[in-house]
Specification:
With 190 residues, this protein is mostly helical. The protein has 6 helices and no strands. Helix 1 (9-30) packs antiparallel against helix 2.
Length: 190
């Protein structure tokens, strides 16, 4: 008996989209606020959902081909970055260690984005690839932003715009995914 195809990639995409919009707003308006604790719940929510469901996807491989690895593993890494940020904010700790960790998954996301375009993976490989590349660059530039550019308002504004564009790319990927799933799974029963 074959395992039924169960796809919750749209859940991970929606969560990632929300995370990048949250991060854009945080970089623009919250990075230098004295009370970082108010940001903690939102970052922790994005992180928990990404880590849990990305982890399930990474170990059960519900998607065909390499997609479980691409979306599951990267969701786990994104999840732990957001969870780490949420915990650090709640405890009043520096975000530098989280930003240093984000560098390495950031590089992986850039590589994955380039490879998605190269192999023409997904229904919209350029959009998905650019989404991964921009998402990865957020991780790559997190530590330098905290270390050297935190008080540079024009840089932070530009970074927030790029993060919002990243969120828009994931929105343009996410909402059609829900539309498609409604048709694909309309008659599916457990």
């Amino acid at each position: 008996m074959s395992k039924p195809f169960i796809d919750w990639a749209s859940l991970l995409l929606l969560n990632m989209m929300a995370g990048y919009f949250l991060l854009a707003y945080y970089v623009y308006a919250g990075l230098d606020e004295p009370d970082q604790t108010k940001w903690s719940p939102a970052f922790a929510m994005v992180g928990a959902l990404a880590a849990i469901f990305g982890g399930i996807m990474a170990v059960t491989w519900p998607l065909p081909g390499t997609y479980s690895s691409i979306y599951g593993e990267m969701s786990v890494l994104l999840g732990f970055v957001f969870l780490g940020a949420g915990v650090a904010m709640a405890k009043g700790w520096s975000l530098r260690a989280v930003a240093c960790y984000a560098f390495f998954p950031g590089i992986a996301a850039v590589v994955i984005g380039i490879r998605i375009i190269d192999l023409r993976l997904t229904l919209t490989p350029v959009m998905a690839g650019v989404g991964f590349i921009l998402s990865g660059l957020a991780g790559v530039f997190a530590a330098p932003t905290l270390a050297w550019m935190k008080s540079d308002r024009p840089f932070r504004t530009l970074a927030a715009i790029v993060l919002a564009i990243t969120g828009l790319i994931w929105a343009a990927t996410t909402y059609p995914e829900y539309w498609i799933h409604m048709k694909l799974f309309a008659r599916w029963a457990p």
